[in-house]
Specification:
291 residues, single chain, two-stranded antiparallel sheet, 2 strands, mainly alpha
């Protein structure tokens, strides 16, 4: 085993971690403002991949598909928040948790009925095929694109939250929604927008990862577990935690797969256990957030 091989595996871990980051950011946005543990997040991720296959078949344009998929899944998220989740606000954290868990099961079953159990393919666009020399060896262009677009989206999201008036309203609404109501802010519209944004991120993660896997109804089950591990490690509701923990989990899973493939699935749970023993609220979380 050479140093170059280890470095290439490290880059592969960053690409895998980029998908975890997009998923965990969506979860953290929704939990951070609405205190909703969205167990339907994996189903939205799966819908992103299926909508991507459909959009690519209609438009034949990968870049247009990347724009349309998060918009479509985000609109579905808006409908879910307005009709199903909103009536449960103020009834405790377990009510929306059970609702979204059931919703995820229903969505997956509907996709199984409509599309069947056979996997569908999502081809890598011609402009992103092949491999490029990154100094330590040849690395797939599409995975580099995955890292780059994730970094760009996170930067744009951070700027939107920190430097715009709407971002200020979101951050203030997460701290004290009652004060925002007194100031005349329609906090319900803010919650609606954040839920749609979070589900849009899940849909985008699904379509971005689709060329690297097979599009099947159950594809959201595994990533849902991984996304929650990332969110817990980073700290519930923390965007910075979602980014750092997503990349950590991706790298640890990838490196464990190189040295001990049979333990790669267990590595992230071991990481979560160690973090929770040292810091129960997660790396960037706050004490009592779930209380």
């Amino acid at each position: 085993m050479t140093l170059n091989l280890i470095l290439l595996q490290l880059f592969a871990g960053l690409a895998l971690g980029s998908v975890f980051v997009l998923l965990a950011v969506g979860l953290s946005l929704i939990f951070g403002l609405l205190t909703v543990v969205n167990f339907a997040h994996g189903a939205f991720y799966m819908l992103g991949a299926y909508v991507g296959v459909f959009m690519l078949g209609v438009t034949g344009n990968f870049w247009l598909t990347l724009v349309l998929v998060p918009l479509c899944v985000g609109v579905i998220g808006l409908f879910v928040e307005r009709t199903l989740v909103r009536p449960l606000y103020g009834r405790g954290i377990d009510y929306p948790l059970l609702l979204t868990f059931a919703l995820g099961l229903v969505v997956v079953e509907l996709v199984r009925i409509v599309f069947g159990l056979d996997g569908m393919s999502f081809p890598v666009p011609s402009a992103l095929r092949g491999a490029v020399d990154i100094g330590v060896g040849y690395f797939p262009v599409y995975r580099l694109f995955l890292v780059g677009i994730t970094a760009t989206l996170i930067l744009v999201l951070w700027l939107a939250l920190e430097k715009t008036s709407y971002g200020l309203i979101i951050r203030a609404g997460a701290r004290d929604p009652e004060i925002m109501r007194v100031l005349g802010v329609d906090i319900g519209r803010v919650w609606l927008g954040v839920f749609g944004l979070g589900t849009g991120f899940a849909g985008l993660a699904g379509v971005l990862y689709a060329p690297m896997t097979s599009v099947i109804p159950d594809m959201g089950d595994t990533v849902l577990v991984q996304a929650f591990v990332v969110t817990v490690v980073g700290g519930m509701g923390s965007l910075a935690g979602a980014v750092v923990a997503g990349l950590m989990v991706g790298v640890i899973v990838s490196m464990t797969g190189l040295f001990y493939p049979e333990l790669s699935d267990l590595a992230m749970f071991a990481l979560m256990a160690v973090v929770l023993l040292i810091r129960p609220q997660g790396l960037f979380g706050q004490k009592g957030l779930m209380g």
